[in-house]
Amino acid sequence: MTENPSISQKTRQIIERLQTIQLRVEEACARSRRDPATVKLLAVSKKQSLDTIRAGYAAGLRNFAENYAEEATEKIAVLSDLTGISWEMVGHIQSRKAKLVAQGFTRIHSVDSLKLARLLDSARSAGLKPLEVLLEVNVSGELSKGGFMATNQKEEQALVAIVEQFAEFEKLKVTGLMVMPPLQADPEKNRVYFQKVRGLASRLNQSLGQNKFREFSMGTSSDYQVAIEEGATIIRLGESVFGPRHYEVK
């Protein structure tokens, strides 16, 4: 791969953006009386160039996320020289793509069906650590959004029954919930959906008699401060970290 002469400039730009983000994370944590260390920044590198990801790595980033299976597996292979890096999948996974993502990722945020979970469990190598998974939930009722429906008591009861079946998957470990609220200009309008996710997790834990749901993947570049105030443990930031997307594998 040809080295890009502007890599140091890219790294400096990313460092500056990360400093701004960290300040806003700390402000949100102060408002909600939280420790900033409880919030993990996940750098969403979809459609970002390899050089840009390397610049992010040089800036100190180690946790990256992708949305598309083919793009992700290609990047993971090309960037295998970056030590200490971890990859997470945040996008929708088609059943036929499950094998592509079962091996190279440490966490899947977008498990939205028992069928997908079963395929991931089957494809995960026995020698690897259990694949950490978050259940994507739909608390807004938008038909255009994926995820397990959880807008009323009946749907929540159905979700409890589904979660109980995850016990059969020896190579998966459920640790929390992920949500993609409606796209809105005012981030405050998404506060109610983040609150619903926390409430849902509490009821699921109570029904299951365990503290399985502890991680909350919620909040993107437009609303992560509100998400943090409502308990997000993972915020998914893309262009606010890397800048505009221009993906091209070299």
How is the topology of this model organized?
Layout: H1 7-31, E1 40-44, H2 50-58, E2 63-66, H3 69-78, E3 86-89, H4 98-101, E4 107-111, H5 114-123, E5 131-138, E6 148-149, H6 153-165, E7 172-178, H7 191-208, E8 215-217, H8 224-229, E9 234-237, H9 239-242
Parallel strand pairs: 1-2, 1-9, 2-3, 3-4, 4-5, 5-6, 5-7, 7-8
Helix pairs in contact: 1-2, 6-7
CATH superfamily: Alanine racemase
Task: Give me the strand/helix succession.
Answer: HEHEHEHEHEEHEHEHEH
- CATH topology label: TIM Barrel
First-residue to last-residue Cα separation = 6 Å
Individual helix count? 9
Strand tally:
9
Assign the CATH class. Answer: Alpha Beta
Low-pLDDT segments: none
Fold and architecture overview:
By secondary structure, the protein is an alpha/beta fold. The protein has a single domain (7-242), classed as Alanine racemase (TIM Barrel). Helix content is 40%, strand content 17%. The protein contains nine helices and nine strands. β2 (63-66), α3 and β3 (86-89) form a beta-alpha-beta unit. α1 packs across α2 and α6 packs across α7 (191-208). The longest helix has 25 residues, at 7-31. The chain starts with 6 loop residues before the first helix and ends in an 8-residue tail after the last helix. The mean pLDDT is 93.
